[in-house]
């Protein structure tokens, strides 16, 4: 058993502003993953029921365990109860253990009951989720990165790069190139990397309801006109998905 305390300082420095410092602490004990999944599930508590009225329209309340279970099995299993990935039948579906339900994996989105990969969706369709922060920084995986905080001379949002390659997973960052030249000697570039939410935040706080689509976004400019987007999500935690 060990205790690890990590302090991460993300420093943003650009020609537009001074700097922002993000101070993130986390504590992890080796071998306590099952307990963490159980405690997160108890905080969310979405599976428990007393009658069918507590469940989705296509579910019944299984009284021996007081859990909502599917009444009808269809081609897709998004939202269905599961304990392992094998019970999630659709392509790109995984089992999110805290809520014991089949959900779409990272880089995919539910479109009409099917998990579609971002690479198969047109960027101008509006179907790929845009990840933003309160300061106006934004990134759309497999599409582009922008900021509304600063503008092009035309008045449009400043472009920080268009998708080039990569998945965003560890050792394979998603890269965005050919961004705006405004106030930069070279075209702006960006990268996106998915991080495990529980590595950066306290997953066990009673105030934290860690649903599968929970995200937090950090942005850093470690080299001039090159931007790093870090997306913290529970779907990047190997102990929370199967």
Describe the structure.
This protein has 242 residues and is mainly β. It contains two helices and 16 strands. An eight-stranded mixed beta sheet has the order 9-10-11-12-13-14-16-15.
Features:
242 residues, mainly beta, Cation-dependent Mannose-6-phosphate Receptor, Chain A, 8-stranded mixed beta sheet, two-stranded antiparallel sheet, 2 helices, 7% helix, disordered N terminus
Assign a percent range to the helix content: under 10%
What structural class do the secondary elements suggest? mainly beta
Strand order of the largest sheet: 9-10-11-12-13-14-16-15
Can you tell me the CATH architecture of the largest domain? Distorted Sandwich
Task: Tell me about the largest β-sheet.
Answer: 8 strands, mixed
Can you say what the CATH homologous superfamily of the largest domain is? Mannose-6-phosphate receptor binding domain
Q: Count of DSSP E strands?
A: 16
- Within the CATH hierarchy, at the fold level, what is the topology of the largest domain? Cation-dependent Mannose-6-phosphate Receptor, Chain A
The N- to C-terminal Cα distance equals: 24 Å
Mean pLDDT: 80
Low-pLDDT regions = 1-30
Total of helices:
2
Structural shape = elongated
Strand content: 35-45%
Could you spell the SSE succession in H and E letters?
A: EEHEEEEEEEEEEEEHEE
CATH class of the largest domain: Mainly Beta
Report Rg. Answer: 20 Å
What is the domain total for the residues? 2
